[in-house]
Write a structure and sequence with these properties.
Blueprint lengths: L2 E2 L2 H21 L5 E7 L3 H17 L2 E7 L5 H13 L5 E4 L9 H7 L11 H8 L8 H12 L8 E5 L6 H10 L3 E5 L6 H5 L4 E4 L17 E4 L3 E2 L5 E2 L4 H4 L5 E2 L7 H16 L2
Parallel strand pairs: 1-11, 2-3, 2-4, 5-6, 5-7, 7-8, 8-11
Antiparallel strand pairs: 9-10
Bound molecules: NADPH dihydro-nicotinamide-adenine-dinucleotide phosphate.
């Protein structure tokens, strides 16, 4: 039976540490502000935004909410980002994605000052990660590294297979695992012999967005399995990209869905905000 990697507990520990740090910074006269911009009223985005505001409140950072109508133009959004970039009282800027189709996501990401890019999506942040320079790291993969570190998983020399190569999860995950000295394989929809490749993994990280795609026969006995996927069925029940019931008896450690990777993303966003306050 696998040990459960408890993302709820680990994210709570991180938030406690950050709360302590913001209290210390406050004593030194530094009060953090995160600007959260949402364009349109997509219900899923509204839930994410609400959770981010709650986390800010909990750790002691001010959140400045900008709830803009769906018909906001790209120029209006860029003007707002420009003002926030120039405002010394604002430490972090986050635009909740996706933005409406008439706004180009890439242009918006590129407009945020790299010094305030707490999502870690700006090309400069990604470039810094690639060449091992300091910079903000995308929150979900950074959260996975924390889960592995705090669960004492040996990454140095481990065979790590990452399934998925998105800009926000798979690619930065590969760079972070390289930084931890793992031997990294990145698989995607064109990969041949996926099962065989996965079965070679000491650490298997799955971010493909396909419900319960990874079954027990993809998993090497004793592997550490990290499931990034989130799927909600018609009864509101959550599941991941990994078939948990099959994987759990084979793996040595596994993240559940919910309560694994999910809670870490916001905790690492808060971590990035605190980092932005100390720059
Ligand atoms: P994307 O859709 O952007 O990327 C999916 C990746 O999986 C692509 O690289 C794609 O390959 C690959 N893929 C798709 N099908 C297969 C397949 N059959 N075999 C191998 N590879 C495949 O997804 P994201 O990275 O944004 O998200 C992945 C999952 O993680 C989703 O369920 C999402 O909801 C969840 N998620 C959870 C977060 C959290 O906080 N827990 C945060 C972010 C995402 P190709 O490039 O060739 O198309």
């Amino acid at each position: 039976m696998a040990k459960i990697i408890d993302g709820k507990k680990i994210s709570a520990e991180i938030k406690e540490e950050l709360k302590e740090q913001t209290a210390q910074l406050k004593l030194a006269g530094v009060e953090g502000t995160l600007a959260v911009i949402q364009v349109g009223a997509d219900p899923a985005s509204s839930v994410y935004v609400r959770n981010k505001k709650k986390a800010c409140e909990y750790i002691g950072i001010r959140s400045q909410a900008y709830e803009l109508p769906e018909e906001t133009t790209q120029k209006e959004l860029l003007d707002l980002i420009g003002r926030l970039n120039a405002d010394d009282a604002v430490h972090g800027i986050l635009v909740q994605l996706p933005v409406p189709a008439h706004i180009e996501e890439k242009t918006i990401i590129n407009a945020i000052s790299p010094a305030k890019d707490v999502d870690g999506f700006h090309p400069e942040s990604v470039g810094s990660l690639t060449i091992g320079q300091p910079g903000f790291v995308s929150c979900t993969p950074a959260g996975i590294i924390e889960l592995l570190r705090r669960s004492k998983v040996k990454m140095d020399g481990a065979n790590c297979v990452i399934v998925g190569r998105s800009n926000i999860v798979g690619k930065p995950m590969a760079l972070l695992m390289l930084r931890e000295h793992a031997t990294v394989t990145v698989a995607h929809s064109h990969t041949k012999n996926l099962k065989e490749i996965c079965r070679n993994a000491d650490i298997l990280i799955v971010a493909i967005g396909k419900r319960e795609f990874i079954t027990g026969d993809y998993i090497k006995p004793g592997a550490v399995v990290i499931d990034v996927g989130i799927h909600r069925d018609e009864n509101n029940k959550l599941s991941g990209d990994v078939k948990y019931d099959e994987a759990e008896p084979i793996a040595s450690m596994i993240t559940p869905v919910p309560g694994g990777v999910g809670p870490m993303t916001i905790a690492m966003l808060m971590h990035n905000c605190v980092e932005a306050m100390t720059k």
